[in-house]
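Notes from hallway chat w/ T.B., transcribed later so I don't forget. T.B. wanted the structure written out for a chain they're using in a teaching module, and asked if we could keep both sequence and structure tokens in one place. Agreed to drop them here.
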Amino acid sequence: MNELVRPGQDGAIMELVKELLLNGKMIRARTEGKSMYPCIREGDYVTVKPVRYEEARIGDILAYERDPGILTAHRLLRKNSYLITKGDANISPFYDPPISPEALLGKIIKIERAGRVIQMEKPIYRIKGYIIAYLLICRAKYLYYKGLGMWFNNLVL
């Protein structure tokens, strides 16, 4: 999973990040993990803009507090009274656990990689994000109905 603040780091860092985002400030962070590959790669720098639940759109890459002290970035697939996300590279047919609107902190608006800057709010990237979200849902349903859902349920790690 793409983590912007890792477990084991000083809890004060996560509190500072949360405070900045909740007060309307943007942050820039280096990513770790491979769950959003190829869109976000390990070592990329991302800019996170504060976003309210009402502003989040299908296909956005959201930054949220998954567990206490862990800031995660995954793509929004569904939005009801809670948010459903999934990493682009996660092959499991299951989505991430539902996220409460209170856990949402922001969305990725810029990705920096090897001197290249990707502005995620440009229309072409908005459309790509929506298409990727749709394909992730289709892939999850296909894998689940193909019987792999039971295999993943029984997988012991």
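Follow-up for T.B.: The chain has a mean pLDDT of 86. Might be a good example for the class.
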